[in-house]
Structure to design on (288 residues):
């Protein structure tokens, strides 16, 4: 590969998924970055990290940000526990080819709906009737997800009365363990999918099932894995309801994402394939 092409196809699949930290100072060291607080310093191999989530009270130096950007690590500035994302750094790709292909598929009404159908088939291994509209597909998807919640709650003996999304301090404290576990796990999943999307040069905003939000495509890609990985994990931990549930969920997500090679799968889901369905040459994206 020629030197000028080094950033076109970053190796996001090789990353160590994500790391969350709050109330730390992020500094550059000789070989990595370091997280510093009153208890001491922990070095982090930035080159092997895909996304760094920084919560309240965090400070990052200019040198550390430059090092993270050079390593292709997405830096997300989040709320407490990583539950809400406020800003994110840039990915390392320098090519607009993937973004242009995404935009063409998003803008074409027929292809837009075809992408939605492919996503549904990837999630539920079910082909949809060609007569279904986007709203009808969203409705079927919603039913399948709610059913997955009910089944996971029943399997783990969790009292379940539906999904609640309260994000204020009082609402969060009063929320059920299952809802807190789901929200925390979703934040981790969104951060990882956001890193994969940006790293291969796609837009987080140009979603197909979800539309109109700055992270619509992040939600689309994350939903491909939500029922498979996140829902069982969240309800299992909610049933155990350990102290510091949010922290336990984040660590469990880290391990589950790594074991399932999730960042590699998320990258492949939106990577090139030929018209015959094969992978390279890398000119068209797998979803469109």
């Amino acid at each position: 590969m020629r030197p000028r092409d080094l950033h076109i196809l970053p190796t996001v699949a090789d990353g160590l998924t994500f790391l969350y930290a709050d109330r730390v100072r992020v500094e550059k060291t000789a070989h990595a970055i370091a997280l510093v607080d009153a208890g001491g310093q922990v070095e982090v191999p930035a080159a092997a990290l895909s996304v760094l989530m920084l919560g309240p009270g965090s400070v990052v130096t200019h040198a550390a940000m430059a090092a993270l950007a050079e390593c292709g690590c997405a830096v997300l500035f989040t709320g407490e526990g990583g539950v809400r994302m406020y800003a994110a750094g840039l990915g390392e790709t320098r090519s607009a080819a993937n973004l242009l292909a995404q935009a063409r598929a998003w803008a074409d009404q027929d292809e837009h709906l075809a992408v939605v159908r492919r996503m549904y088939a990837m999630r539920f291994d079910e082909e949809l009737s060609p007569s279904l509209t986007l709203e009808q597909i969203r409705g079927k998807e919603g039913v399948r997800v709610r059913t997955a919640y009910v089944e996971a709650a029943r399997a783990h003996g969790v009292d379940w009365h539906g999904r609640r999304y309260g994000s204020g301090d009082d609402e969060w404290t009063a929320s059920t363990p299952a809802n807190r576990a789901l929200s925390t796990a979703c934040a981790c999943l969104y951060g990882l999918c956001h890193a994969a999307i940006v790293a291969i040069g796609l837009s987080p905003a140009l979603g197909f099932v979800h539309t109109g939000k700055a992270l619509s495509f992040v939600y689309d890609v994350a939903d491909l894995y939500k029922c498979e990985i996140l829902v069982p994990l969240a309800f299992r931990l909610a049933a155990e309801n350990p102290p510091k549930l949010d922290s336990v969920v984040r660590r469990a997500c880290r391990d589950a994402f790594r074991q399932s090679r999730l960042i590699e799968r998320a990258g492949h889901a939106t990577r090139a394939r030929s018209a015959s369905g094969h992978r390279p040459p890398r000119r068209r994206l797998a979803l469109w």
Summary: The longest strand covers residues 33-37. Residues 1-12, 272-285 have pLDDT under 50 and may be disordered.
